[in-house]
User: What shape does this take?
Amino acid sequence: MAVFVALGAFLMTLAGGWVAQRVTDRRHLVLGLAGGLMLGVVGLDLLPEALEAAGREVFGVPAALLLFVGGFLAAHVAEHLLAARQAAHGADQHERVPEIGLTAAAAMVGHSLMDGIALGAAFQVGGGMGIAVAVAVIAHDFADGFNTYTLTSLYGNARRKALAMLFADAAAPVVGAASTLLFTLPVQLLGCYLGFFGGVLLYLAAAEILPEAHHDHPGRSTLLCTLAGAGFIWLVVGLAGE
Assistant: This one.
């Protein structure tokens, strides 16, 4: 049942990527929406889930929060190391580093894989729990597909690479759900991963995507798209929790 439901997530992810590539003539609006979606996913979905799942504290601080900060700093350091390497090879320091986009998209694929594992584990607990998780996963996989394609292409990767990462992200929930037929992932490990991943996404949204969206088009429409993206995730989280 979980694998069948994950096919819905597969289609929803592809739909999100399709929308992202069809609106390239409104790039600032796409980036504004993607930034809002990512902020909403991190603050309203990933971080609360990570705090609940990881549980324990390390020196008075929840482990998920420590990893959240670690993910943010890791993304910051990785970007500067890649930029420094690019500059050493004579490239423009302001030029986008394709590896960052691929790394961010790979993180999205990892997140979708964890979604599938969570989906399979929920159906192992019971049908009611499985349906609740399925609603949340399918609803926000549209945003995942949108962000995966946008992140990959934003950093100068070819369209075929962006499409490859999109299809990998779409297939990940199906693979994750199928894997629960073989093993069960410890809840605390999942929580720690979500905390770290949330930090990476927050850095990309706050330091890269939103500044890029408002750089050439600091208009009201871009801001409204950002607010709409965050509001959409709030709506999804609220409906999934009912």
Observations:
- Residues 113 and 172 are 5 Å apart (CA to CA).
- The two ends are 22 Å apart (CA to CA).
- Strands lie at 57-58, 61-62.
- DSSP finds eight helices and two strands in the chain.
